[in-house]
Amino acid sequence: MKLSQLKVGKKGIVKGFTDLEMSVKLMEMGCLPGEEVTVERVAPLGDPIAINVSGYQLSLRKREASTIILL
């Protein structure tokens, strides 16, 4: 499952990434493999989404979230 498919309030564990270039940016922001992420909010039109990771809130575009693979 990809992070972009997770519903509000649900949790997942980061397993890996589909885009190498994007993965570097996401890992610098705390989305490391093994980290738990929770979807906090989704904008009315579905983009962006707010997630909680490593103790802080992070907003991602849907295409960025679709590169994160969850367990």
TrEMBL record:
InterPro entries: Fe-transptr_FeoA-like, FeoA, FeoA_core_dom, Transcriptional_repressor_C
GO molecular function: transition metal ion binding
Gene3D superfamilies noted in UniProt: 2.30.30.90
Pfam families, sorted: FeoA
Keywords assigned: Iron
Protein name per UniProt: Ferrous iron transport protein A
Domain Ferrous iron transporter FeoA-like, first and last residues per copy: 1-71
Annotated SMART domains: FeoA (SM00899)
Taxonomic path: Bacteria, Pseudomonadati, Bacteroidota, Sphingobacteriia, Sphingobacteriales
